[in-house]
Each structure stands twice: as structure tokens, then as C-alpha cells.
Amino acid sequence: MSPMPATDTPLGAREHARxxxxxxxxxxATVPAHTHPNPPAGITPTDLSWAETVAPGSYSTKVLARGSxxxxxxxxxxxxxxxxxxxxxxxxxxxxVADTVKVPWQVYLTAGHPLLSDRGxxxxxxxxxxxxxxxxxLCGAAPAAVHARRYGDGSAWGPTPAxxxxxxxxxxxxxxxxxxxxxxxxxxxxxxxxxxxxxxxxATAPPGASVQIRAEMALIVLLANAPHRLDERPTYTCSPxxxxxxxxxxxxxxxxxxxxxxEVTRALENTADYLHAxxxx
Length: 281
What we know:
By secondary structure, the protein is α+β, with helices and mostly antiparallel strands.
């Protein structure tokens, strides 16, 4: 990526804005989403609520209805989707990565894994995973300092933006600030724990790999597409991330996922109890 023009004068600001077409966005969001020409197979176009391709070094955000399915696809094999979730009605409840790995007794994310808040509720669940577990729940999004050491710049509007800075921009669109940026999940880049406790950047997902996530309550979704903090390659290596979301139903007691493990059952029951008390369920 080439350096962006300075923005300290009106002319510089204009050039910066016009340069965005070549710098930050390769495919704009389709608005309205149901007009996207190639919806996912089997999905009725009118059900689409989000259709976007996020360029390397960029971000996106959306508020999704309860029961929505979020589909993330690593189009070329080098995307890294950093994800944060918030209860859309009470954003003080948000994704808690520690509980997400501790409660289900599993640090490696794949299909069937609940994404939990610190209140014991399932914000979302992973439905399918063709990336074969190539995800990370241990490291979180890289801050600007990591990218500054590796690439020379990690600022949000620089040539090599860091994931945490991008998530901060997404959060600001919902009146959330830096103090609201908890540790995030990273999809399509895997980290494994060695026998001595060291973390090893393991592998990337193959091109075309995808993960489907179901929203168990209305959610604020923040996504950044930027290199993983343990990716030591000297060049800023990242590729486009495709996003689709569509309306659907939350997990119900008759769904096999509801009874898949005692921990998933309790998390979904806690979510259902909360929503019922609020008159949402």
C-alpha cells in the first residue's frame, strides 16, 4: 500500500478521500443487501441483511437481528477476520473470550462452539466451519505498536493499519470507545499452544474457507480484516474478506445444537431466560 495524502489542508483532505477508492475498499457494501447479484446458495435474496467484501486493512460493522446467520468467507486464503460482538440492546454485555474458551472446555473454535458473554449467555454460536478450526481465541487484535515495529506504521489511516485500531473505528459508529474494545476472536488464522505453553502461529485457512455464526440475540458486530499479531511475515499480508448475513431463527430447544453439551445447553437457556424476561423471546 502506498502512503495516503496528508489531511491537514482542505486540498489534502480531498485527495485523501479520493484515494480511498484505491487504498481501502476493493468492493463496496451492497445497499440494500438484497440486491446483491450472487447471494449464498439457498438463501432468498430478500432475507439478506448484509453483503460486503472487506478489503485488506479495512473494517465493517452492522447491527444484526436475533436469529441472523453471519457468513464469513476467506476468499483468497489470507484474510484474518477479527470479531467483536455486543448485545445490541445493552452493549455493556459483550463477547468475553476467556469464558468462550473456558466454559466449553475448548480453546480451539469450530462448529458447535458458543460465543459467550461474561454473563453466562450465548451471544452467538458457530454453526459450520470449513476452515477446519483455523481460528484463534488466544491472541486478540494487534495494536498499532505491533504493526509499527513490524511494518513501520500501525495507525488506522496509515498504509498498514492494525486490527485493534480498525475495530476502534467500527466501535465509534455505535458510540463505543477504546474502553469497550475487549479481546477479540480471529478467524482464518490458527494459533496452537505448545507443550511448554508457548503460542505458535500455526496455519492459515485454505482459499474459500468459511464459517457461519448464528446470532442468538440482537448483536452489534464489529469486524476488522488485518494481519494476525503473530504473523511475522515482513510484508502486510492480507486478502479480501467476504461477509453475508441473512435473517433466520435463533437456536431452539428442538435443535440438536441446544443439547450438544451441558455447557451449550446452559448458555442457550440463560440467553432464552434473559430474552423472555425482556419480552423479546
